[in-house]
């Protein structure tokens, strides 16, 4: 069975205030053309269809058009909700849409109920595990504890129990939206840390033939059978080196992958991250190749230059982001403060603040739990598990 694995469309998202709607439309044109030309048997979308819970109308129209075109091709599509989606909104009309071969899986309670497709070798069971927010789905899944490993483990227990009751030789595919240990992150993914643990071990997916992951925006292979497709477009300058693509995989008769190919996505405009003093960036002839790119410029001038953005735009008309990182001596107090904050989580910064105001004594165990609960309450405010 030939499967096209994609994820993290983030329809409706902008790139530093530049609309990406036209680029997202071009990607969906490319996806539909790939399905038709490569004779794809099933399309998988591993979450984050939209960029936010209430997407703009233009994004909804784009999604609606994509569903109609895929349905017209007669190719089954299985998709799950991600942490950016509203499960209830995305899942509206799922039962009716399923008649057209579009299978939306947004309800955590349905993790163990697969979409069953068949080829000449027999059945393939596709299990859709939408993004599982631990605080919202723990009771639904009867998970033994809070946290991503526990709830995803409980969901996979349901998958394995259903699979064990199916005829021998039934092959299996899981779609999941999660941060799996070993995956490389970028700046554009929303933090899903709960209780200090955001990632889940890869062995939570033991017992299935292929795992189509979403959430991380870089295409990557964790094991031969566990892969991220990554986002089809770059959504932050941290993705400047990414090769945006989809996975086209062949599921063999025995459940193993007989082929795995990266299908490149259209690039609306290259990204460039430039660093140095302003005058050097304006004069360096080696930077001419970036004059048509979307540019992030990090200026290292010890004193902020006059009108830097306007001056950069004269050479790089598509400059979008300006960062100041003055080169300072190691003993400069401002430099040491920035170094202390770099790479710290919100919880770590909050605990450091408590230690600062107490003369070095940080929060005790109970206070640390309260801080974690408060940060988690703010992060999940307004979310709905369904």
TrEMBL record:
One function term, GO molecular function aspect: endonuclease activity
InterPro entries, A to Z: Calcineurin-like_PHP (IPR004843), DNA_Repair-Maintenance_Comp (IPR050535), Metallo-depent_PP-like (IPR029052), Mre11_N (IPR041796), SbcD (IPR004593), SbcD_C (IPR026843)
Ranges for domain Calcineurin-like phosphoesterase: 1-218
Nuclease in keyword set: yes
Domain of life: Bacteria
Any single GO BP term: DNA replication
Domain Nuclease SbcCD subunit D C-terminal: 268-356
tRNA-binding is among the record's keywords: no
Record keywords: DNA recombination, DNA replication, Endonuclease, Exonuclease, Hydrolase, Nuclease
Family: Belongs to the SbcD family.
Assembly description: Heterodimer of SbcC and SbcD.
Task performed by this protein: SbcCD cleaves DNA hairpin structures. These structures can inhibit DNA replication and are intermediates in certain DNA recombination reactions. The complex acts as a 3'->5' double strand exonuclease that can open hairpins. It also has a 5' single-strand endonuclease activity.
Record's protein name: Nuclease SbcCD subunit D
Gene name of this polypeptide: sbcD
